[in-house]
Amino acid sequence: MQDFRKLMVWRMAHDLAVLTIEHTAEVPRGHGELVAQVRRATASVGANIAEGAQRPTSAQFAHFLGIALASLAESHNHVLLLRDAGIMRRAPAEDLVAHIDRLRPMLLNLQARVREPQTDPQPRARRRTHPEPSTPDPAP
Questions:
Q1: Tens-digit pLDDT profile for residues 81-104
Q2: Alpha carbons 92 and 119: distance in angstroms, whole number
Q3: Where are the domains of the chain?
């Protein structure tokens, strides 16, 4: 387990969620459901990184990083929809897309590192499964 706040990928995800709140504040009324959904999706990225970092095994952490990646893809989709439908201005949407594009490879790299087999810092003593053959005494 580790302090998620020390992870650069979590800080980037947190920044994305804050930027999303700021940039969607300009969206005209009447699009509240879509705005709420994109805000939830971006908040979920950092939340899953944080939750995974607190799990006791690397496999569990990797699983939560996968969920974070899925939430990031959902966020990307919603931002593109807001932009392409003319609901969000192009500049703020492109800012969010650029942030998403920087965050995705970081998440993928962390997930790959977490999935790598852990090396044991202290090698275990080799166990013999068969007795060593006895060697004859040398002839005098």
A1: 999 999 999 999 999 999 999 999
A2: 44
A3: 4-115
